[in-house]
C-alpha cells in the first residue's frame, strides 16, 4: 500500500529527508523548493549550497549526510510501514489532508492509517487536560457521542484524560474520530480500550513525526496545530494553564477556527476562563454546544432540547 502514484523508492527518499534530525517543516519545504526533490537534497547537494538555506548550519548538513548514508535502513523501514498498512503521504500528494495546507508550514509528509472521507470535513476538535476530573471525562465522552451522532468527526490527540474520552465517545456512538499523534505512528496505541475492528472502520490515525520517533514535549506542542487545522470547530472541556489545550485554542484562533469552552456549574478550570476571555464561546450544556456548533448553519428544533453535561 502506497500513498498514490509515487513509487516505493521515491517515498523512501521522502521518508529519509523527513526523518533527518534538524529538518522541521520549514526547513523541509525550503529544501524542496530549492532542490526540487528529497533525493536531490540527499544525493547531490553541495554543502556550500545547502548552507545558503535560511537557518542552515553544520548540524543540518551532518544530519542530511547521515540520512543519505542510511538509505538502506530507510528502505527496510518503509517496507515495514507498508506491511502494517501505514500510508506515507507527502504534502503535494492528492491524498494529503487538504486542511493542513492552510498552515504556514504544513508537515512535509504525514503517516496515516485509515482513510479520510468527505464527512471528515465536518470535524470538531475536543481538547483538554490529561488530568481530567470525572465531570470533565463524562462531558468529553457525552459531547463527542452527541456530536458524532449528528455526523461530526471528532478530532483529538490520543492523550489520557479528555482526549481519550472524546475518541471513545465518538467510537461508541458509531461515529468517526481522528487520532493526531505526537509520536511516531509505529507507537500508536489507544489510551483506552477500543476494539480493533472499530478502529479500522471508524478512525484515522495521523502523525507528522518520523515513524519511530518517541514522544517529546516539543512534538506534542507541534501536534496541536494539526489538531486545530483538521477541525471546523474546537471545544475545550477542561484546560489547565500549563497544558496544550490553550495552545491549540490559540492556534485555532489564528487560523480563524471558532472555539467553545465548557462552563460547568461548579468550579471552572482556569484555562476555560482564559479561553472565554480570549474569545471562545462559553457553553453550559450539550444543547448550547450543539447550537454553537451549528451557528450560521441550519438550525434544527432538537437543538433546543437540554441534555446537560452528564
Describe the structure.
With 310 residues, the chain is an alpha/beta fold. It folds into two domains: 8-106, no CATH class; 118-304, Rossmann fold. Helix content is 43%, strand content 13%. The chain has 13 helices and nine strands. The chain has helices at residues 8-19, 25-35, 38-44, 47-50, 58-69, 71-83, 134-149, 162-172, 196-202, 217-229, 244-254, 270-277, 286-294, and strands spanning 87-90, 109-113, 123-128, 153-156, 177-180, 203-207, 233-238, 259-262, 281-283. A nine-stranded mixed β-sheet has the order 1-2-6-5-4-3-7-8-9, with helices on both faces. The longest helix has 16 residues, at 134-149. The chain is elongated. The termini are far apart. Residues 296-307 have low confidence and may be disordered.
Summarize the structure.
With 310 residues, the protein is an alpha/beta fold. It has helices at residues 8-19, 25-35, 38-44, 47-50, 58-69, 71-83, 134-149, 162-172, 196-202, 217-229, 244-254, 270-277, 286-294; strands at residues 87-90, 109-113, 123-128, 153-156, 177-180, 203-207, 233-238, 259-262, 281-283. The radius of gyration is 20 Å and the shape is elongated.
